[in-house]
């Protein structure tokens, strides 16, 4: 069966420099993620997870190395070009939800579409937003404000916002960090369902129980990739 490489990183290095100090956050990272994969990245605090996620999400550029996402070379793009490509190719789900309290659920989910050029029509936005809200079983809450929802419901809205632009890959950063175990399990079950339907997911998590739900588990230590474990039977 032929697969499509969604993410390809080669020799990714990230160095933070000050006048007194040089910090090597990432050291020669090689990473490939295929379309439809579910990958988790774990490691102790300070291992480089945040730096790797920032580069994966086009929020930062590597000091050295190459990064290709869905066939597009993103290695040396400027800030504006990264923003355009990020909006086209990447969906985000954050630990802190990052919903805007003043906007209702519908408008929170619609935000990525309204930043696109050209902006989709109002009818197209409504169709796409209600479709992803239905996927996460939150269409009935589309007029509510975030502060009227539970933490688990807010994370479902955040997942819908990450999916609304039909991204090539969904980057998920500690999705259960602000949730109790019941809501955390519900969110993880939803991610598993989305992956089963074909969504490519790369998740950063400190929780080994949730990391084990991925089809492939990667480990970082001191800015280096240690090993990748494939789980038999994982989606």
TrEMBL record:
Pfam families: ABC_tran. The keyword Transport applies. Residues 7-232 form the ABC transporter domain. Keywords: ATP-binding, Nucleotide-binding, Transport. GO terms for molecular function: ATP binding; ATP hydrolysis activity; transmembrane transporter activity. The keyword S-adenosyl-L-methionine does not apply. GO terms for cellular component: membrane protein complex; plasma membrane. It comes from the Bacteria. Gene3D superfamilies: P-loop containing nucleotide triphosphate hydrolases. Belongs to the ABC transporter superfamily. Macrolide exporter (TC 3.A.1.122) family. This is ABC transporter ATP-binding protein.
């Amino acid at each position: 069966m032929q697969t499509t490489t969604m993410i390809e990183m080669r020799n990714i290095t990230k160095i933070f420099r000050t006048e007194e100090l040089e910090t090597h956050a990432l050291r020669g990272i090689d990473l490939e993620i295929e379309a439809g994969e579910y990958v988790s990245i774990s490691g102790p605090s300070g291992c480089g997870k945040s730096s790797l996620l920032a580069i994966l999400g086009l929020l930062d550029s590597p000091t050295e190395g190459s990064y290709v996402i869905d066939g597009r070379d993103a290695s040396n793009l400027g800030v504006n070009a990264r923003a355009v490509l990020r909006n086209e190719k990447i969906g985000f789900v954050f630990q802190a939800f990052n919903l805007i309290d003043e906007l209702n659920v519908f408008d929170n989910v619609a935000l990525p579409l309204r930043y696109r050029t050209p902006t989709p029509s109002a009818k197209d936005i409504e169709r796409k937003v209600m479709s992803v809200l239905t996927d996460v079983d939150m269409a009935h809450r589309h007029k509510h404000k975030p502060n009227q929802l539970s933490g688990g419901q807010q994370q479902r809205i955040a997942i819908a916002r990450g999916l609304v632009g039909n991204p090539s890959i969904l980057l998920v950063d500690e999705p259960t960090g602000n949730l109790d175990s019941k809501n955390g399990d519900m969110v993880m079950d939803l991610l598993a369902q989305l992956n089963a339907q074909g969504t490519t997911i790369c998740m950063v998590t400190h929780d080994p129980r949730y990391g084990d739900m991925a089809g492939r588990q990667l480990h970082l230590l001191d800015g280096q990739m240690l090993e990748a474990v494939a789980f038999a039977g994982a989606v």
